[in-house]
Amino acid sequence: MTRPVRVLYLAGSGRSGSTLVTTVLGQYAGFFAAGELRYLWQRGEVENRPCGCGLPFRDCPVWRAVRRDVPVDRAGGIAARLRGRLRLRGVPALLRRHRRGRRAVPAHPDDAALAGLYAAVARHAGARVVVDSSKLPPYGALVGALPGVELRVLHLVRDPRATAFSWRRRRGLDGEADQRLMSRPPVWKAALLWLVWNTLTARLWAGDPGRYLRVRYEDLTADPEATLGRIAAFADAGPSAGAHAGPFTGPATVRLAPTHSVAGNPSRHRTGPVPIAADVEWRRGLSRWSYAVVTALTAPGLRRFGYPWRRGGPVAPRHEED
């Protein structure tokens, strides 16, 4: 009997530290930092954007091996159909199906290709755990229902005012030299997406503590080595997983080798010694108006995830996942 592929799925909203976590986990024995695999078909195969290692996707030796086992000739169609299946407007129906114990994202013929992708990644990377930082909760629900996949969900949460500020920065899709910019949603839209995706992530998985772990960006950056060791243990990659198997050269410094993340924040290309520290520029840079708008729109989630209403207020101590 073929052993299922263990997928550690990073869920939640963007700009919450997922690229950092994925890249660091990729340095642990048994882990493969795949990046945002939901974008492999479009950004990787169709657009041939750079892999985390710096080579164009189709030239990377790891992805070249994986491509031989998946239907790359149908990549454009799979990408388009995925976008349709994962639309925001489909969330209410997704929740109804979930409450009734049905598959949250209905099955589709493309699912065989998706399942084959995860199997091929694990096989060619020699990984016990495939780290997928796609974040979008509906896609996580889809992956969790694929045959041959064993899903564990890492829910990354960050103060919504910080994420809204981060989204407004001008960043090239694949680094400073790239003229194509990453998405820059207005603060109100970033706030609503933060609320929807984080609430949906908790709704789908928080009731199953064996498969769900919540980690806040603020706790991660306060104690990086212990937090990453806790995440590695949760993913259960085997006896080599844990704090002593990672890349830390100090409590808050890692040495990064290139990964093969297929898509994500351009910081996935960083290598060498990298300090891990909280990005708190938003505390000075976010205007009063923007702070008030984001706070009002995300109010239902602030208390749940332990964030203060007032600027400069303390983040609540880490609590057990609900």
From TrEMBL:
Q: Which organism is it from?
A: Micromonospora rubida
- Keywords from the UniProt entry: Transferase
GO terms for molecular function, please? transferase activity
EC number(s) on file: 2.8.2.-
Question: What InterPro entries does the record tag this protein with?
Answer: Gal/GlcNAc/GalNAc_ST (IPR051135), P-loop_NTPase (IPR027417)
Tell whether Nucleotide-binding is among the UniProt keywords. Answer: no
Q: What is this protein called?
A: Sulfotransferase family protein
Q: Which Gene3D superfamilies match?
A: P-loop containing nucleotide triphosphate hydrolases
Judging by the UniProt lineage, the source's domain of life is Bacteria
